[in-house]
Design goal:
The protein is α/β, with parallel strands linked by helices and about 260 residues long. The chain contains 7 helices and 7 strands.
Length: about 260
């Protein structure tokens, strides 16, 4: 990315692994700094240590589905990182559970996750507005919020990611006068922790497994495949894009084999 992010600071919600972590790496490589959240303190610390080899990085540990922890996250962001001008909402839960087997606790976890990201976004946007220099937000949505897939029951996941898709468009319009752009990416199967529940990690690269063959390009995605688009949307190269939901999915939305 060269110096595309010189002086920028990104907050990555769900940044200790997967797409969020890969995006934080790219922002640091481009001259920026990064604040990442993660649910596992040990994993978060290791991620911050890795990122810190390439620039300034900070970690905030929190279980986002526990609403009692969100006020502390928001206070820390407001007190220490009000200068952040980039945000990625990348936390996700994929539970391939049949609709009739959901209980209220499982359903609530999806809603709590969106609630957490809604209010964390509010805190970060408040900082952007106070700075008055604009900013960029990218939400990590999902192909499962755009169409149904029989092989993977996904009703709760679709409710959560569909909410992020809708929030993307609502905020894009509301924040456009303040030069804050809001876009989303919509990945299909990606080799990241939420999707390991679908198929063991070592089988995701198997060209004959159903998840690889479902994609017209013949493979599941990598975190970097998606992070490349996220970084583009965060950068000035996408300065005339807002409210877009970009398919990064190996061709699944075009049609399946």
């Amino acid at each position: 990315m060269g110096e595309a992010f010189e002086g920028a600071k990104i907050v990555v919600v769900g940044g200790s692994s997967g797409i969020g972590f890969a995006t934080a790496q790219q922002v640091l490589a481009g001259g920026g700094s990064a604040v990442i959240t993660g649910r596992n303190p040990e994993k978060l610390q290791k991620a911050v240590q890795t990122l810190s080899q390439h620039g300034e990085a900070w970690g905030i540990a929190a279980e986002l589905t526990d609403r009692a922890q969100i006020p502390d996250v928001r206070k820390q962001l407001a007190a220490e990182h009000a200068d952040a001008n980039l945000l990625v909402n990348g936390a996700g839960i994929f539970t391939p559970k049949p609709f009739t087997e959901y209980d209220e606790a499982c359903y609530d976890s999806f809603n709590e996750l969106n609630r957490a990201m809604f209010f964390i976004t509010q805190t970060v946007v408040s900082g952007m507005l106070a700075e008055g220099k604009g900013g960029a937000i990218v939400n990590i949505g999902a192909m499962w919020a755009r169409q149904g897939i029989a092989a993977t029951p996904h009703s709760g996941f679709s409710v959560q990611k569909g909410g992020l898709h809708s929030l993307t468009k609502a905020l894009a319009i509301e924040l456009a006068p303040h030069a804050i752009r809001v876009n989303a990416v919509s990945p299909a199967s990606v080799k990241t922790p939420p999707y390991f529940r679908l198929v063991p990690e070592e089988q995701l690269d198997d060209p004959v497994n159903s998840y690889a063959s479902m994609h017209p390009l013949g493979r599941v995605g990598t975190a970097e495949d998606v992070a490349n688009m996220v970084s583009f949307l965060l950068s000035d190269k996408a300065s005339w894009m807002t409210g877009a939901i970009v398919d990064v999915d190996g061709g699944v939305m075009a049609g399946r084999n």
